[in-house]
Amino acid sequence: MSHPATSPARTNRSAAVGRSALDLFAGGSGTVFALLIVVLVAITFLNPSFAEPPSLMAFLRNAAPLIVLAIGQYFVIVSGEFDLSVGSLVGAQVVIAAKLIDGEESRTWGVIALMLVFGLLVGLVNGLVTTLLRVPSFITTLGMLLILAGAVRLWTGGAPTGALSDSFRQWGRTGIDMPVVRQLPYALLIAIALGVAAVLLMRAPYGRTLLATGDNPTAAAFAGVRVWRVRTLAFVLSSLMATLAAILIGGFAGVSAQVGQGLEFTAITAVVLGGVVLGGGRGWVVAAMAGALTYQALERLFTQLDMPTTARPALQGVIIIAAVAYAARSRGHRPPPPAPAETANDPVPERVG
Amino acid sequence: MTLTQQAEAPRTAAAVEGRRRAPVRLGTTGIIYLALVAILVIGTVLVAADGDNLLAERNIVDMLTRSSVLGFIAIGQTLVILCRSLDLSVGYVAALSSLVGATTMDGDPARVPLGIAAALGVAAAVGLVNGLVITKLKVNAFIATLGVALIIRGYLDTEYKGPAGSVPDSFQNFGYTRIGVVPLSTAVMLAVAVAGIVLLRRTRTGYRMFAVGGNDEVARLSGLRTDRTVIVAHVLCSMTAGAAGLLLASRFSTGVAAQIYSAGYDLDSIAAVVLGGTLLMGGRGGIAGTIAGVLILAVLDTVFRLLQIDPFFRDVLRGAIIIVAVALYARRQIDRHAVRARFGKHGRAAGGQDAPRPVIPEARA
């Protein structure tokens, strides 16, 4: 697999690159890129104007929030946990922003800072309850989902009030005016920046520790990893990403009581579509982002095919199961890659012999 | 169970009562029933302070009625979770079988058995698909059942625009008849629960479920057909969800889709199972605990309704109570983690409902 942590031998990198072309259609993380290409080609074939830069940019702007959410969910899933609270956290954050900003431009940045603090707190509670109190994360975040959804509706009386300011909405709505693409969306730039940061983080010691924890928490703990801290930070990252996604979604879609509903399942689906294994320890953050993009592309394809809205879930279900089954099948047939690399690079026998 | 371990039990009124009552060990299931009693007592006091009586007949009927639908679903969910799997499609299966049942019956009393058979058959088929996708295609249960749920949703939304079919009066009795204070539906649910307990404690299939959930690989190496066990659990789970769908059809007197699948039975049933002390990681737990979990949720709902607590605040309280309860069990499980014998003296599975049986202390003494 092309993941950095699963191919520790740097000398083997050239071989890995040669193999990655085959990997594209061989399952694992590669499947999602193949699927993405197929879907994008299909959309372009049905509607050639889709490939024009402006409409492509609009598509990417719509996809950006889900990509951001997928990055956050990736951290939690790869550490071996779940985060079901992101959907209701997005909803809560949008409602909080609308209520506190109430159309006043001057409050924008203060409220965004407050939202980030709130996201941080939610993630901290999720993480600490899961790790220190040993509540399964499925239950912790399910409880958090109920609490956030209930609290927000209680606070607003069921119908969100207030309004977002223009400087808040610009992040999800507008972009930098440019010649070719007409407008380069801020949302896309934010998603790319967060993606790059996530890749760097996964290559940093924290990322490797996170993967090790997800793969085998006991072994990681014996190796000196403070498992609870690593996992708690993953939950905090997930909640912060959900907060940023809420800023984008709020700007793009506006405020309603339904914002964010069901997004947790969409985000998990996107990550799993990217070949990230539920249960932790395996997966590539870029593939998770591609999974989110693929999910959006599929929705777009269904629109293009004029499929009745009611039938879409069915096809989505089939595709998700098929993609994951395909990835699982290929993973099962592959020989474990690190073993030969380990012996070849092991300096001890060479010195002795 | 040793005295020191008993002393470590949470120092609540319920635990003190339990220590007096139980000279044998107090298992997880016992704790949950004590928690249920404690919640009933606290609820009664709170409701009494509000000038009402929680234990009045109509309120007891209300609690039991609330518990029957979720009870059916949670029984099946317990079997699946014991196998270290998960079923997120139960709400959709219930909706589907309510429609299949109601349209097959079509108001004709003679067709009631046919309608029941059709609904349960369709549910079983969905369970079979779930099980096959999980075991043969090796798709994670979370994704597999979520995918199947989406497929059913697409079918329901396309085929049925609104309520469909009708249920004859004779079958509506299933939803409304009472025997004393116990609604017929609750009695049937409890009968299914007893059948499930017998399945888990007295049959090979049941033992295999514990084995597969405890360690799939060891079970396989011991010669169990692990795939078959998981498939059976999923078929049974879908069938109990189908039964819940039939019950809902008899209450609505017609088959409905969106009202059922958007009611959140999937997550509620998982919460009830975990509240009942079954490990989400599989291999330990049982249906008796699940029933207590379902009853706890039902009592809370009734208390909230009587106290006229804002429905949105109910969600907040529910979420908090679920987290706190599971955190309390988790503490107990840390205290005495791996040393518990999974099998008793005579080779019987003791990992299941362990509260009422005195086998384990003998085995450990």
UniProtKB/TrEMBL annotation, chain A:
Pfam families: BPD_transp_2 (PF02653). Keywords: Cell membrane, Membrane, Transmembrane, Transmembrane helix. It is a multi-pass membrane protein. Residues 331-353 are annotated as: Disordered. This is ABC transporter permease. The chain crosses the membrane at residues 24-46, 58-78, 108-129, 135-155, 186-206, 233-255, 267-290. Signal peptide: none annotated. InterPro entries: ABC_transp_permease. It is found in: Cell membrane.
TrEMBL record, chain B:
It comes from the Bacteria. InterPro entries: ABC_transp_permease. Keywords: Cell membrane, Membrane, Transmembrane, Transmembrane helix. The chain crosses the membrane at residues 30-49, 69-94, 114-132, 139-156, 176-200, 230-250, 270-300. It holds the Pfam family BPD_transp_2. It is found in: Cell membrane. Residues 345-365 are annotated as: Disordered. It is a multi-pass membrane protein. Signal peptide: none annotated. This is ABC transporter permease. It comes from Motilibacter deserti.
